[in-house]
Specification:
194 residues; eight-stranded mixed sheet; Aminopeptidase; alpha+beta
Length: 194
């Protein structure tokens, strides 16, 4: 699984962005080539680049802005790919259940702390309530600690998003403030130092 072949097709792909493996999930990097194919509406090419079939109803209209933003980040700074969006894929079945990643490398976070990274995650409705968001967040934080020595994590959550609030609390995040997001409105900001 993964996008090893993408480097042959897209000069902006970092071919060495390995999947992060969790107990039930593989977190597979969404390369610039993959995201570009999605934005172009070429789902067949996108599936070929990432190595598994895409959900029929994804990406939806709400995801387009996220994809454009991440694609732009990777086009400007290819080295950010390792920090950005990863497809959450069930091990063994190849079913994509959501996506997760950081907002960028250290320093790209709501608290503007140079040593912290900010988590983001989405689990598709049909797969919610099974602990996938928690597992993905744990895997991302473990990877950041082991590969980059990161020990400070941030999460911004809408005050009405009870499932996501439960995830950050379960992981030990502490509420440290609020902020207004241009897209999502009021968000509660949480921090974890480990």
């Amino acid at each position: 699984m993964g996008n090893a072949d993408a480097s042959l097709l897209d000069p902006h792909v970092m071919p060495d962005v390995a999947a992060i493996v969790a107990p039930r999930l593989e977190l597979v990097s969404m390369s610039p080539g993959f995201v570009g194919a999605l934005l172009d509406g070429d789902r067949d090419r996108a599936a070929t680049l990432i190595g598994f079939e895409l959900p029929e109803d994804w990406p939806d209209d709400n995801t387009q802005g996220f994809l454009r933003m991440r694609h732009g980040q990777m086009q400007r700074e290819p080295e950010t790919q390792q920090w950005l969006g990863r497809a959450l894929v069930l091990r063994g079945s190849g079913t994509m259940v959501g996506y997760a990643g950081f907002h960028g490398p250290p320093g790209s976070n709501a608290l503007e702390k140079g040593d912290a990274v900010e988590l983001g995650y989405t689990v598709f409705p049909a797969f919610r309530g099974r602990g996938y968001a928690t597992e993905a967040a744990q895997a991302l934080m473990r990877w950041a600690r082991e590969e980059h020595g990161i020990t400070a994590f941030v999460a911004s959550v809408s005050p009405g998003n009870e499932p996501s609030l439960a995830v950050v609390r379960k992981l030990g995040f502490v509420h440290v403030g609020e902020r207004m997001d241009d897209v999502d409105g009021l968000e509660l900001v949480f921090e974890l130092r480990s």
